[in-house]
Amino acid sequence: MNGKGAMTVHSINKEAIYSYLEEINDPEVPVLSIIDLGIVRDVKMNNEELEVIITPTYTGCPAMDMITATIKIQLATLGFKKIKITQVLSPAWTTEWMSDEGKRKLKEYGIAPPNPTQQVCDQKLFAAAEAVQCPHCDSYHTHRISEFGSTACKALYQCDDCKEPFDYFKCH
Amino acid sequence: MNESLIRYALHLADNSLILGQRNSEWCGHGPVLEQDIAITNISLDLIGQARNFYQYAAQLINNFQKLESSKVSPPAGGGDLEGASEDSLAYSRKEEEFKNCLLVEQTKGDWAQTILRQFFFSQYQYLLFQQLQNSKDGQLAAIAEKSLKEVTYHLRWSSEWVIRLGDGTDESHKRMIKAIDELWKYTGELFEPASYELRAANEGFGVDVSKLKEPWQIKVSDIFSEATLIPPSGGWAALMQTGGKEGKHTEHLGSIFTELQYMQKTYPGCEW
Questions:
Q1: CB–CB of A147 and B157 under 8 A?
Q2: Last residue of a domain, one of A87, A119, A135
Q3: How far apart are CA B87 and CA B11, in angstroms?
Q4: What ipTM goes with this model?
Q5: Which of B47, B135, B196, B239 could form a disulfide with B7 if both were Cys (CB 3.0 to 4.6 A apart)?
Q6: Which residues from chain A sit within 8 angstroms of residue B42, using beta carbons?
Q7: How far is B241 from chain A (nearest CA, A)?
Q8: Both A99 and A82 in a single domain?
Q9: Closest approach of chain B CAs to the CA of A104, in angstroms?
Q10: B41: which chain A residues are within 8 Å (Cβ-Cβ)?
C-alpha cells in the first residue's frame, strides 16, 4: 500500500488515513490538499464504517460536493466498504485552521495566503483594506480591487510596485 | 415542536433561496465586472444557506413522517413530502407553500433597488443570525453561526453601496429615493412574526423578530443619514404589505418559479 502502512478495516491507522486524505486536493485551489485547508476534523471507525468528519469552508462553496465524492472514491479504492462523510458546521471553519504548509503552497501558486487577523468580523465601513503582501514581488504596496473574487474564498488585489493583479485568500 | 420547527426551517430556507435566485439575475449584467462578481458571490452564499436549511428541513420531515405515517397527514405547506430532499423542497413546492417574505421576491429593478434590498435584508439577517446562534436547536444554531461570517461581508458591502449611491451623483441619489419608495412597504413584514415564528420563539429554537425591529431601525437610520437619505413619508409607521411568510405572495414569485422550477416541472425527477 504505497509503503504507507498496512490497514485493514479492523485496524485503522488514523495517520495512514490522513496521509491518503492528503492526496485529495481542493478542486478550486488545486495546490491545497484538504488537510492543508483544515477541513478534515476527525476520522472515526464505527462498526466497520469509516466516518470522515469535515467542515465546509464557505457556506455556498460548490467544491464541497466534489470533495465529498472524492474522499469516498479515494477511501473505497483502499478497500473500505462503508464510508460515511459527515459535514459539521459548528465550530465554523476559519482560515486559522489552514496549515503553514498550505499557506506556503498558496503563495508559491500566486495566491496571497490569508492574514492571521479576523478582519472579516469587523463591520467598519470603508475601512482601509488590510495590508496584503504581493505573492509575486513581496511588496506590501498593494490595494484591494474588490472584496469578492473568482471564488467565494478570494478577494481581488493589485500590487502597486510590480502592477500584477492577484488573488488574496481572504481571512474568514 | 416538530411541525413548527419544520415550518421555521423552511421559512429561513425560502428567504435565502429566493433572494439568491433574484441576485443571480445580475450574472453577466452587473454595472462593472467586480460588482457583478460581488452580487453573484452573495447569491452563492445565500443559496448555500438555503441548502443547509433545506437539508435540515428534509431530515426533519422524513423523521416526522416515519413517526406519524400511520395516523396523521403531513404538515401543510411542506409540498409532496414523500422522501423529502433539499431538491424536492426547492423545486416541487407550490407558490402558496413558500414562506419567504415579500421583500426578497421583488424584481431586481436597477442597481439601486438591488443594493437597497440587499442592505435591508442583510441588516435583518445579521441581527437574526446573531440571535439564532443561541437557538436551543443545535443545527439551526450551527447554520446561523456559519452563515453570520458571510452575512457580515454582505452587510458591509451593501451598506457601503447605499452610502456611495445616496451620497453620490444627482442621478444615483434620485434612484435611491425611488428604490426606497418601491421597497419600504415590504420591510415591516420582517418584524411581524408569522404563527410558526411565534411558536419557534416561544419554544426557544427561534428568534422573536419583533425585538429586532428597533435595532434594525437604528442601523438603517445611521446608514441613511450618512447616505443623505431619509425614510419616506409615514416613516416607521407607514402602511406595510405583509403575507409572504404565510404563503400570500406578490405576482413576482410566480415569475421566479418559471425559471427556478422549469426543469423539474418539465422533466420531473431529471438529474444532471
A1: yes
A2: A87
A3: 15
A4: 0.83
A5: B196
A6: 148
A7: 30
A8: no
A9: 25
A10: 148-149, 152
